Amino acid sequence: MKALKIATFNINGIRSRLPVLLAWLEREQPDIACLQELKAPDQTFPLQAIEAAGYSCLFQGQPSWNGVAILARGAEPLEVRRGLPGMEHDPQSRYLEAAVHGVLVACLYLPNGNPQPGPKFDYKLEWFERLIEHAQGLLDSGHPTVLAGDFNVVPTDKDIYDPRSWRKDALLQPESRACYQRLLDQGWTDALRHLYPDEQVFTFWDYFRKHWERNAGLRIDHLLLNAELVPYLKNAGVDAWVRNEPKASDHAPTWIELGTRKHR
Questions:
Q1: Active-site hit among 31, 150, 190, 250
Q2: Which of 133, 137, 213, 228 fits a 20 to 30 Å CA distance from 15?
Q3: In this protein, which residues make up the domain named Endonuclease/exonuclease/phosphatase (predicted)?
């Protein structure tokens, strides 16, 4: 298997953040980039600009909200599915799956779930259940697979600057965390936590109360690997510099590097 850099980035509006996206692609050159929260219908997706940057892409947009895309450098991503099984009538664009560079990549934007309790939190848990069910099938297939995206879950209190003021938020609810743990229990590996078990690493800093300036962040963007890929995991990190750019998203790209198989 050749070396690959795979990233996930909640762009929070691809049209307004396009200069930031292009600067990141040029500087970091991920082989595969999963984007969430395009907030644009398909007809306004900036396909030409992204192709000019050297990337082929699949995308599923939606006016004003949601939207996911998979970008690939030097290869054409082959679409496998749009939307989760059992969610065929869901109007929200949140899941895209493709085969590219010898890896199956699932790009997902899990529902936020706020305010909770309520219908939005119920939808989050329903979506999570469908994801868990589908993820088991992906594991059973044995294909090298990455689940990449904004999971809208802070897995543990270590993954947030201070959990006290967020206790009522959907991202920290026991039900949300339990669903995430069920994915790990299936056999998925949280790549960043696997390499950095004790470090506090953030991927999101909201726009309020100077959270970025204070490094008051959360880790909600994750890359989960199946057992076939874990031996190839070489490095992982967060391109925090992107969060400091003008008109930045409130997320920063999170990435992994897969290399030659580690020796046992």
A1: 150
A2: 213
A3: 7-251
Q: Annotated catalytic, 207?
A: no
Catalytic choice (55, 109, 180, 232): 109
Q: What is the pLDDT of residues 105-155, one digit of tens each?
A: 999 999 999 999 999 999 999 999 999 999 999 999 999 999 999 999 999
Which CATH architecture group holds 4-258? 4-Layer Sandwich (3.60)
Domain ranges of the chain: 4-258
Tokens for 146?
A: 């990455």
The verdict on whether 109 is a catalytic residue reads yes
For residue 8, the tally of other CB atoms under 10 A from its CB is 29
